[in-house]
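From the shared-data thread, chain only:
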Amino acid sequence: MESRTDKELREIAKGVTEGTILFDTQVPEDLLPMVFMPLIFMDENQIEFLRGKHIYGELGHTFPQGINGYPMFTVIFAISKEEKRKVEQYIKELKAWTEGASK
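Structure, as tokens:
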């Protein structure tokens, strides 16, 4: 898996703040396979590849229906823990910037 650029990570952070991207950490664990549907169809090697990573989905890749208020993603993406930490930092920067701009 190739590392993402800072620009790509900032775009992911923007998507999270705008509500167009949802991470696995935002979903109850028992709902993960239903929200991130491709997990159900993965073999052991694919699941092993995801260990130690976070997954996320984009709202452009969902079924028309949802489950318990969550979307059901037809496509998922993986991100390393280090990249997720950067995304979280960029989210904090975006929130601080938007809060400062609204004053």
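The beta strands are 21-23, 53-58, 62-67, 70-73, 77-80.
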